[in-house]
């Protein structure tokens, strides 16, 4: 599948980010079709090179037509809509097509059950930095997908960042780290901004200090490839100011707090998968 035909049904924030990443990366595709409910949404993507963007409002059969020749079908609709959409398109799918769900809490069994016996199904868990091609995406495939199928889908998501392949249980666990992770980072930036305000800085300066410190630290980590603990130690001089701040965080149980937080996220992910 050197140049697959790709269809994306429902190009909201995540589906649209993946579409833009694929286009920007220059990934070879035989065709690239995307559908959305409204003409306004379809128009936002119509100018992308090599993309056919269709509104269901204008062409009610757009989903059926999009998947008829697609080798890879990405499902980007809301989780509650996934099963119905899959049942609807199941008889229009090209034989051997790989169906990839972006929806949280939608299991491989649910996907395969809606599509029918022998369906090739993959769960994908990207995160929002896909918009800037810095995503972490987890992929879990069912038993009907070949290594070649997984490689073809992996190439699509590598267009928007880094890919980790795992089993289905790993997808839920991954969602608590990289899936929810951007929110954790933004929350920490919010708190550091508040600390700067407490130290007497203006809101504008507080935001610059907090945000650019996170951006700069991440860039340094990426550029050097060093272990984060090593970089932390380089900043933390013995008996210095940073060491005192780290002591306070350790005493507050920051390490156990992150474990408790990700455990809570995992419990909710399992509830969603069970339909709760």
From TrEMBL:
Give a Gene Ontology cellular component term annotated to this protein: cytoplasm
Q: Which residues bind NADP(+)?
A: 9-14
Q: Which pathway, per its entry?
A: Amino-acid biosynthesis; L-proline biosynthesis; L-proline from L-glutamate 5-semialdehyde: step 1/1
Q: Which reaction does it catalyse?
A: L-proline + NADP(+) = (S)-1-pyrroline-5-carboxylate + NADPH + 2 H(+); L-proline + NAD(+) = (S)-1-pyrroline-5-carboxylate + NADH + 2 H(+)
NCBIfam families given for it? proC
Sites where the protein binds NADPH: 63
| Location in or out of the cell | Cytoplasm
Q: Name one Pfam family in it.
A: F420_oxidored
Alphabetical UniProt keywords? Amino-acid biosynthesis, Cytoplasm, NADP, Oxidoreductase, Proline biosynthesis
Tell me where it mainly resides. cytoplasm
- Name all Pyrroline-5-carboxylate reductase dimerisation domain ranges: 168-272
Q: Which GO BP terms, alphabetically?
A: L-proline biosynthetic process
> InterPro entries recorded for this chain?
6-PGluconate_DH-like_C_sf, NAD(P)-bd_dom_sf, P5C_Rdtase_cat_N, P5CR-like_CS, P5CR_dimer, Pyrroline-COOH_reductase
Protein name per the record: Pyrroline-5-carboxylate reductase
Protein origin, superkingdom: Bacteria
The family database entries (PROSITE patterns) matched by this protein are listed as: P5CR
The family classification in the record reads: Belongs to the pyrroline-5-carboxylate reductase family.
Query: Which Gene Ontology MF annotations are present?
Result: pyrroline-5-carboxylate reductase activity
Gene this protein is translated from: proC
Name the job this protein performs: Catalyzes the reduction of 1-pyrroline-5-carboxylate (PCA) to L-proline.
What Enzyme Commission number(s) apply to this enzyme? Answer: 1.5.1.2
């Amino acid at each position: 599948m050197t140049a697959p035909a790709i269809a994306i049904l429902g190009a909201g924030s995540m589906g649209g980010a993946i579409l833009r990443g694929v286009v920007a990366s220059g990934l070879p595709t035989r065709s690239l079709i995307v559908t959305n409910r409204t003409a306004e949404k379809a128009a936002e993507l119509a100018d992308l090179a090599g993309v056919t963007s269709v509104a269901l409002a204008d062409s009610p059969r757009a989903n059926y037509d999009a998947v008829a020749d697609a080798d890879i079908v990405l499902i980007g609709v809301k989780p509650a809509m996934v099963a119905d959409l899959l049942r609807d398109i199941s008889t229009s799918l090209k034989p051997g097509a790989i169906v990839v769900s972006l929806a949280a809490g939608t299991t491989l069994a649910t996907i395969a059950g809606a599509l029918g016996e022998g369906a090739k199904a993959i769960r994908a868990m990207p995160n929002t930095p896909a918009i800037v091609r810095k995503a972490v995406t987890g992929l879990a495939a069912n038993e009907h997908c070949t290594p070649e199928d997984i490689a073809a889908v992996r190439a699509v998501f590598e267009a928007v960042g880094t890919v980790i392949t795992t089993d289905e249980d790993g997808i839920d666990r991954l969602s608590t780290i990289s899936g929810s992770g951007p929110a954790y980072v933004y929350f920490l930036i919010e708190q550091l901004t508040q600390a700067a305000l407490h130290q007497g800085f203006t809101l504008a300066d507080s935001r610059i200090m907090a945000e650019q410190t996170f951006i700069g630290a991440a860039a340094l980590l990426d550029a050097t490839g060093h272990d984060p603990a090593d970089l932390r130690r380089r900043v933390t001089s013995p008996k210095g100011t940073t060491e005192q701040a780290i002591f306070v965080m350790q005493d507050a149980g920051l390490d156990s707090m992150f474990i408790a937080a990700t455990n809570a996220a995992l419990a909710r992910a399992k509830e969603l998968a069970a339909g709760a």
